[in-house]
Amino acid sequence: MSGVNVLIVDDEEDIGTLVSRLLKKKGYEVKIALNGMEAEGFIRETPVDVALVDLNLPDTDGFTLLRKIKKVNPRCEVILMTGNGTPGTAEKAVRSGAFNYLGKPFRDISEVETMVERAASYGKKFLQSQPSGAEWAPIAERLGFQVGRSAVMCSLVDIAYKIAKKDINVLIQGETGTGKEMLAKFIHAASNRSHEIFIPVNCGALPKDLVETELFGHEKGAFTGAVSMRRGLFEMASGGTLFLDEIGEVSPAIQVKLLRVLETGEFLRVGGEKYVKTDVRLIAATNVDLRLALQNKTFREDLFYRLEGVRLEIPPLRERREDIPLLAEYFVRKANPGLLISSRAVELLCNYSWPGNVRELSNIIRQAVALCDGNIILPEHLSAKIAARNSVQVKTRDTNDHSETGKKGAYGSGSREGSAGAGFYEKSLPTLLERYFAAAALEGASSEELMDILERVRRLEKRVLHVMREKGLNSAMPPSLAEAEVRAITEALDYHQGIIVNAARSLGIGRNTLSRKIKQYGIKIEKRKYGCSAGPLCFKKHKYP
């Protein structure tokens, strides 16, 4: 696979050489490092796509190096290798963020090639920042799970997808409203239990005296009112997934029973004498720091480590603001497919701190949809707290702008309104561009200012096209060869005021060739501004009207 850089980190030179030869025959670019220090050097200097890392290195261990690689290059897929693995090594490898795990000696050398190819293909998909192209995208779309395009969320869901089929317990941490239950549903849908039941329960919402009955059920006559046997959630979810939200709220007595069922797969109903078997995949969630609860002795340490098979932490919305526009548009479509949201309203949403996270954003959009009496959601349709928060920010930035620029505008104008850069944060980009589309705005600019504007517009175009490609958005089709040729000729003629000799010279072709192509494509030459065919650089004396 050409264009893919592979790093082999192993202190056994024979293994490194063997794997290197195999991969080079397949077109890979391969580097070999004998220790962690050499590997870190390669990672910092070269854009490595796949790294095969031995767990036991002279100066470090594979898990430590894995974390360092992911910190420097999150898109690098790491395959861990060892000859001294234990049954839990593979699980720990995936939990730590590795793509996969290989045991040494290799049973089949082609297995290495296959795994590297899969890792490289997967990494390329992820590098494009196109969630629509990720393996897990169809599952997320089916659930209505809006992952967004931020690297932190894509990486989180990537790990969740990898561990979904491992059938190990998962602990999800995150602030209220970040979408912990949705992530749990995604893990269930991507698992081998997807055809079985998914039961969510909020432990904090259950009455304390009924928690045990709800979770484990009860026998007939176990207490007053127990007129019949009742199955609990652990029994009903057998074969499927049980999601326990706000797990930190359960009492110490319930924690003991939870530990028992996680260790043995069996429990007693309230009032029962016979153990009931269950096969449940448990996903727990909390918005508090359970490690702090361990210190305060309010949560059992042994239960914590049982729950924390893999720990996933959902970032708050304020730490992934690039996802806000996508989420806002999704919630608008969901509430009313006929509505649109203005760019200014989106800008206000992006500037808000979102203490209630995605849930709060969903509520704000629903309110805005209800208040909107037109076809577009405007800033005035948003909650007052959004506008209030933004007005504070604008006032602060306005003060800073005055202090930095004084009375002189970005292009030397004494008027703040007349300055091209003044108040930029108060206007959306389309509004600012519309302002410069007006002829008067450009006519008054100096030559230096016009050149500066042109350069910035060209850079903006390149940047927009680059971001669109990263997001998987389709821009205009690239021009055909003939179209590109017409454009190049037209721009050269325009630049040289229609002087064919000068235009041909700048294009690197002969004058006759250029004349033929002008006729071939039917290009019209604008009337020259100068009276001499030599153009603006002619030193002859001419009389001009």
TrEMBL record:
Supply the Pfam families for this chain: AAA_lid_14 (PF25601), HTH_8 (PF02954), Response_reg (PF00072), Sigma54_activat (PF00158)
Q: Is the keyword RNA-binding assigned to this protein?
A: no
Q: What keywords does the record list, in alphabetical order?
A: ATP-binding, DNA-binding, Nucleotide-binding, Phosphoprotein, Transcription, Transcription regulation
Q: Which domain of life is it from?
A: Bacteria
Q: Residues annotated as region Disordered?
A: 393-418
Which InterPro entries does the entry mention?
Answer: AAA+_ATPase, AAA_lid_NorR, CheY-like_superfamily, Homeodomain-like_sf, HTH_Fis, P-loop_NTPase, Sig_transdc_resp-reg_receiver, Sigma_54_int
Name the residue ranges with Basic and acidic residues bias. 395-407
One of the GO BP terms on file? regulation of DNA-templated transcription
Q: Does the keyword Zinc apply?
A: no
The residues covered by the Response regulatory domain are: 5-119
Matches recorded under SMART domains = AAA (SM00382), REC (SM00448)
Task: List modified residues, type 4-aspartylphosphate.
Answer: D54
- Name by which UniProt lists this protein: Stage 0 sporulation protein A homolog
Q: Which organism is it from?
A: Pelotomaculum thermopropionicum (strain DSM 13744 / JCM 10971 / SI)
